[in-house]
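Example record

The entry below shows one chain as it appears in the dataset: sequence first, then structure tokens.
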Amino acid sequence: MIRTLCITLAILFSASALMAQPREDKVRNDKKKVEADGFWIYNDLPKAFAEAKRTGKPILANLRCIPCDECVKLDDDLVNQDPAVRPLLEKFVCVRLVSTNGLDLSLFQFDYDQSFAVFLFNADGTVYGRFGTRSHRTNWIGDVSIAGMAKALQGAVDLHADYPNNAAALKGKRGPKPEFATPEQWPTLKGKYKPTLDYAGKVVPSCIHCHQIGDAEKELHRAKGEPMPGKVLFPYPHPKSQGLILDPKEKATVSKVEPDTSAAKSGFKAGDVIQMLDGQPMISIADVQWVLHSQSGNGGRLPVKVLREGRPTELTWTLERDWRTKDDISWRSSTWGLRRMATGGLLLEETEKGLSVKHVGEYGAHAAAKNAGFQKGDLIATYDGKEFKRETDLLAHGVTERKPGDKVPVMVLRNGKKVELTLPMQQ
């Protein structure tokens, strides 16, 4: 029976014991365990490249947060012992990266709000594909599975066997030059972190987590007083935001198409196997997200090659203007920074009556809303004179239409009465 790659189901080894360990011990024990096993190269990418060049194998780099109980359950015994995945892993040089300190951001471009991501590439840096998708803070169901990972690995093996004949098609899987070469060079991280983990001292505080890169990018634009770019605010749009529901057990196979969406209007049908998107071979949902992430927020037309009932079929996926804004960003870890900026630390939830204040921050800049008089249970009637049904849309308005220091009028409903408040925009 196929086991879903989900934190609620993937407890295969002493999870309770792991949770009882101090965080520092978890990191060091994980390092000892992986190095003693000898299959994975531990946090040493140059060594993986050297081994791949020596053996001719492709590289599998698994980025996962340490210490993160969710991620431990995702890729340890579950992945290593799976009968479908294990034989495929042996076709790769496998390296486990447990932090982003010193990470080459020209090579590792992915959704930084993830805490489990797989990169598959050639020893010359050519990217074959990515694996790992999120659309909820803790729930992975519907996004990834062991079966889907096996299909992605096989897809990379097939691409590797045909390389360099397919080099031109794979070129688009590498992104443009990043603004900063490594995470610790971003202004908000510079001077706080080093290129390597401090195993001799406090290793946990020395780690740069993936989402901190996304935080740093958002904070840089905010510090410049710029509107938040759509590609930064809505990174790696999920295909379902465009009505395209993909099967997590397959590489990039359509399981459902929502009516009256860009996917439906573009002619996608359930059962379609997406082979090429915008000229790139697809081996996972994450690959589809990569192509979407690379597109303009003003719309566009993507050539698509699908296999439909065994027959090659060509489509054009037309993305409408402002298509990115249909995605949901409320689940993202980096959205906490947006809440500080746009709502002064309010956490909002969608209810039948409208957006309700679920939590009011109490410390530092996250206490701005509390200090302005907001209370838990308030219903947001209008924000900056506008009505919003989703927290995502309200946050997007706040960081694109307003600047730090602005005073935003907010009308709330409290015990059936209207209360006018003023919310200061934060840095």
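Notes for this example: The two ends are 50 Å apart (CA to CA). The longest strand covers residues 300-308.
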